[in-house]
Specification:
The chain folds into three domains: 243 residues, Bira Bifunctional Protein, Domain 2 (BirA Bifunctional Protein, domain 2); 135 residues, YbaK protein, CATH 3.90.960; 98 residues, Anticodon-binding domain (Rossmann fold, 3-Layer(aba) Sandwich), CATH 3.40.50. Helices cover 27% and strands 28% of the residues. The strands form eight sheets. Strands 3, 7, 8, 9, 10, 11, 12, 21 and 24 form a nine-stranded mixed β-sheet that branches. A hairpin with a 6-residue loop joins strand 30 and strand 31. It starts with 20 loop residues before the first helix and ends with a helix. The structure holds adenosine-5'-triphosphate (ATP) and magnesium ion (MG).
Length: 575
């Protein structure tokens, strides 16, 4: 490919909307273009990268016997109503109507569609196990689309669905996908961790997230260096700290003017945060059995929202912080001074650690007042007791007790054991060996293909641009022709281009009528793994050979440069 003929418009300036390296560089290198917030198109170079990632995904999925199909993005509401998710999914679901006023959505995921296929086309245990997948465009009307391809509203996902006749079969299907994912992300050049995860709105019992390690990642990972514990912070179980077994003292109301925060309260009373109870107030929508919820954790702890919604068994989007004044009228809570003893007509959810904590200080549900010596059981009771805590660096590992470490990651894939959630609600049954009707046992497995592209750039770049791993690079080699008016240089550059093309390399020849500096800058920005520069020494058939990841270049004969480039690419092209 000659660059003079290629559609390429690199940008010198940093686009204003882009905050993180991958977003900036993908835009600057003309890999992607924004249409509207959270909606991107792929330009020639970006499209090639995308196809390479997809090819890796396909190879590894096919190697596990999964079969590729392609379903529509448009999904009828009826299927979502059957599974119960038309209401449960919330505003992220991109709902549309046809001219007859019928409801549809643009699929954010395809459990309903694949379950529908299975119930119509799988009748017998003889057809099992099966794993069907697609690489297809998904839509999620995200609240805050950001970071370019990392959180967009339209994105490409590989989604796979496995169907088994029993739970052992599901375990095996799940493990195969887990193994395939490890290979896929390794081949994409990512440094990642597979961690236990919450199964969220999809439902189901068991799940792992694959997180590409990165400071800009939205997933917080807790892991242990002494055992194999690794989980998202949302999921990681917390160990309750054993508190001293004091004698229960009588409750005592104290004046604590203006002490709305735990910090102020502890300063004022000269006590440790661990002796206090923190209240968090919520309102629940659309769920008849709940209205207001007060959650309590120890003063030094942070509330884990996922654990709270799991304890309540409600969707995350049906709960929000309460309007304290409105909640106060019904329940007696008082902003900044709420404690568990003065509340009525609301659901009280208490962190398990507070059960054994003696003589705590809590809000008095009265302005400028707290109560000392509050004890669980004697002074207040919970509607629900659960682990509500957010794990933090240094907390004891829930498996072995060693201090946990925290890291950030970009969730590039997730695998779920769905079990019978969809096969029961949508009646996807098969006949077993004894002609008994049984629900299909399902798993589902997603990879954010476009998000993976960004994650690769996050991990592989420098100040000058992208440094693509060979396995996903848009081209393998760029030949930079220093002076496109010099016939000797042109001839050698063309010769190198043709030779390498004949050797199966993907080559670009930068034959543009530009200054050498501009060409070098663009080559660095695009991140092509090998650069061969044809300049003044062309008359002696000497060229400069440089890997994008290295700082220095080396003079070589044209023949040596070709051999070295071919050997390097061949060794790395599969990743
Ligand atoms: P997140 O927690 O980041 O919102 P999710 O857990 O809802 O993601 P899944 O339903 O597990 O996402 O979807 C499978 C994969 O699709 C994710 O692992 C991720 O790589 C990708 N993905 C999900 N949402 C987006 C998005 N808005 N933009 C780009 N990729 C996405
Ligand atoms: Mg996920």
């Amino acid at each position: 490919m000659k660059l003079s003929k290629m559609h390429l418009k690199t940008l010198r300036e940093v686009p204003t909307e882009a905050e993180i390296s991958s977003h900036i560089l993908l835009l600057r290198a003309n890999m992607i273009r924004k249409l509207v917030s959270g909606v991107y198109g792929f330009m020639p170079l970006g499209n090639r990268v995308l196809r390479k990632i997809e090819a890796i995904v396909r190879e590894e999925m096919d190697a596990k016997g999964a079969q590729e199909i392609l379903m529509s993005a448009v999904q009828p509401a009826e299927l979502w109503q059957e599974s119960g998710r038309w209401d449960a999914y919330g505003p992220e679901l991109w709902r549309i109507k046809d001219r007859h006023d019928r409801d549809f959505c643009l699929g954010p995921t395809h459990e309903e569609i694949f379950t529908d296929i299975a119930r119509n086309e799988i009748n017998s245990y003889r057809q099992l196990p099966q794993n069907l997948y697609q690489i297809q465009t998904k839509y999620r009307d995200e609240k805050r689309p950001r970071f370019g391809l990392i959180r967009s509203r339209e994105f490409i996902m590989k989604d796979a669905y496995s169907f088994d006749k029993d739970w052992e079969g599901l375990d095996k299907s799940y493990q195969e996908m887990y193994d395939a994912y490890e290979r896929i992300f390794t081949r994409c050049g990512l440094t990642f961790r597979a961690v236990e995860a919450d199964s969220g709105a999809i439902g189901g019992s068991n799940s792992h997230e694959f997180c590409a390690l990165s400071e800009i990642g939205e997933s917080q990972i807790a892991y242990c260096e002494h055992c194999d514990m690794a989980a998202t912070d949302e999921r990681a179980a917390c160990v309750d700290e054993a508190m001293p077994q004091e004698e229960e003292l009588a409750m005592e109301e104290v004046l604590t003017p203006g002490t709305k925060s735990i910090e102020d309260l502890c300063k004022f009373l000269q006590i440790d945060e661990k002796k206090t109870i923190k209240a968090l107030l919520f309102e629940v929508f659309n769920i008849p059995k709940y209205k207001y919820v007060a959650a309590f954790v120890r003063g030094d702890r942070e509330l884990n929202m996922i654990k709270l919604v799991n304890a309540l068994d409600i969707p995350e989007h049906d709960i929000d912080f309460a309007d304290e004044a409105a909640m106060g009228e019904q329940t007696g809570c008082v902003g900044g001074f709420t404690g568990p003893t003065g509340l009525h007509d609301c659901t009280i959810v208490v962190d398990s650690e507070l059960i054994g904590a003696k003589n705590m200080v809590a809000g008095a549900c009265k302005v400028d007042h707290h109560i000392k010596n509050v004890n669980y059981g004697r002074d207040y009771k919970a509607d629900i007791v659960a682990d509500l805590k957010m794990i933090k660096e240094g907390d004891p590992c829930p498996k072995c007790g060693a201090p946990v470490k925290m890291a950030r990651g970009i969730e590039v894939g997730q695998v779920f054991k769905l079990g019978t959630k969809y096969s029961e609600s949508m009646h996807a049954y098969f006949k077993d060996e004894n002609m008994n009707e049984k629900p299909l046992i399902m798993g589902c497995y997603g990879i954010g293909v476009t998000r993976t592209m960004s994650a690769i750039v996050e991990q592989h770049h420098d100040d000058n641009g992208i440094i693509w791993p060979v396995s996903v690079a848009p081209y393998h080699v760029i030949i930079t022709l220093v002076n496109s008016k010099d016939e000797t240089q042109c001839a050698l550059a063309e010769e190198l281009h043709d030779t390498m093309l004949a050797r199966g390399m993907e080559v670009i020849l930068d034959d543009r009528d530009e200054r050498a500096g501009v060409k070098f800058k663009d080559a660095d920005l695009m991140g092509i793994p090998v650069r061969i520069t044809v300049g003044k020494k062309a008359c002696d058939r000497i060229v400069e050979y440089k890997l994008r990841r290295d700082a220095a270049s080396v003079d070589k004969t044209a023949e040596e440069a070709v051999e070295e480039a071919v050997a390097f690419i061949e060794a790395n092209r599969r990743g």
